[in-house]
Write a structure and sequence with these properties.
- The protein is an alpha/beta fold and 300 residues long.
- The chain has two domains: 3-44 and 104-298, TIM Barrel, CATH 3.20.20; 47-102, 2-Layer Sandwich (Alpha-Beta Plaits).
- Helices cover 33% and strands 23% of the residues.
- The chain is built from eleven helices and 13 strands.
- The strands form three sheets. The protein has a nine-stranded mixed β-sheet. A two-stranded antiparallel ribbon has the order 3-6. The chain has a two-stranded antiparallel sheet with strand order 4-5.
- Helix 3 (108-116) packs parallel to helix 5 (140-152).
- Bound molecules: iron/sulfur cluster (SF4) (2 copies).
- One iron/sulfur cluster binds next to helix 1.
């Protein structure tokens, strides 16, 4: 049975597609967006997470770790990621519940069974299951089987994607995917590379091609002050979207949520000083897309 590396399964989601949904977050992403609020999703492997604010420097994790990967410094536990083998022994022993291993291998059957528990809510609300990440399609074998498993049970499926995957992956899951949530961020290629780590060429090509196959696409545009919300980016996005078929655009206001998680993973916060857009700014952007003739809403 194919297994996937999952970092969260969230129930009763109302922003990841229609109705009440269960969202499965798969670990690993080919992009490294500066503003990512699921920082723990980026790495393709399991990762130790440490809440420095909870650590009482008791040393239990130092004792628990047979790899010598933890030491106390400046009144808290510091983990050497190069030595850590992600065994989880320190997690069990931490009296403050301040340690965790992010990422859990689960079989398709386990995940589909978890999703199916809330089937009655999907039926009542027109919801279903959403596979997100990370980049859900980066674990294509697992995703394909999980989508099929849901479909066999009559559960609506959605896939949230960055679009940075081979076209063959889209072609493979198309028959079992009820809706694509397609992230579109920055239209200028160099700027996209700077803020996400990759070119946007494949992403735009895949979106144009996908739109020839299905209308079941929602565009997701993260509105990030000084990064994505400039007039040039919005104008270029509108021009591009005029050439393709899709249902609607969801405008996702940036929120500096990733800051705390970045610290837990020992990563830098690259969005220092950037605040959430105001309600007025979100309304201005919404109007721009609406005046261009698109169905648009703020939020997922
Ligand atoms: S997960 Fe295992 S190897 Fe890593 S720090 Fe904890 S005890 Fe040590
Ligand atoms: S076991 Fe928990 S509280 Fe104790 S030093 Fe390690 S992280 Fe801190």
């Amino acid at each position: 049975m194919t297994k996937g590396l999952i970092f969260n399964i969230q129930k009763f989601c109302v922003h990841d597609g229609p109705g009440i949904r269960t969202t499965v977050f798969l670990k690993g992403c080919p992009l490294d967006c500066w503003w990512c609020h699921n920082v723990e999703s980026i790495s393709f492997g399991k990762e130790p997470m440490v809440r420095a604010d909870l650590c009482g420097a008791c040393g239990a994790c130092v004792t628990a770790c047979s790899e010598g990967a933890v030491a106390l410094a400046d009144g808290r536990a510091v983990t050497d990621l190069a030595r850590c083998v992600r065994c989880g022994d320190c997690v069990v022993d931490c009296p403050q519940s301040g340690r965790a291993i992010c990422g859990r291998e689960m079989s398709v059957a386990e995940v589909v069974a978890e999703i199916a528990k809330d089937k009655v809510f999907y039926e009542q609300s027109g919801g279903g299951a959403t596979f997100s990440g990370g980049e859900a399609m980066a674990q294509i074998d697992f995703l394909h089987e999980a989508l099929r498993g849901c479909r066999e049970q009559g559960i609506h499926t959605a896939v949230d994607t960055s679009g940075q995957v081979r076209w063959e992956s889209f072609a493979r899951i198309l028959p079992d995917t009820g809706l694509f949530l397609y992230d579109l961020k920055i239209m200028d290629e160099e700027r996209h590379r700077r803020f996400t780590g990759v070119s946007n060429r494949l992403i735009l090509e895949n979106l144009a091609r996908l739109a020839q196959e299905t209308e079941q696409i929602r565009i997701r545009f993260p509105v990030i002050p000084t990064v994505t919300d400039d007039e040039e980016n919005i104008a270029r996005m509108i021009a591009f979207l005029h050439g393709i078929r899709f249902q609607q655009i969801d405008l996702l206001p940036f929120h500096p949520l990733g800051k705390g998680k970045a610290a837990q993973l020992g990563r830098d916060n690259r969005m220092e000083g950037i605040a959430a857009p105001s309600d007025d700014r979100m309304e201005q952007v919404r109007q721009q897309f609406a005046e261009a003739g698109f169905a648009v809403q703020v939020g997922g």
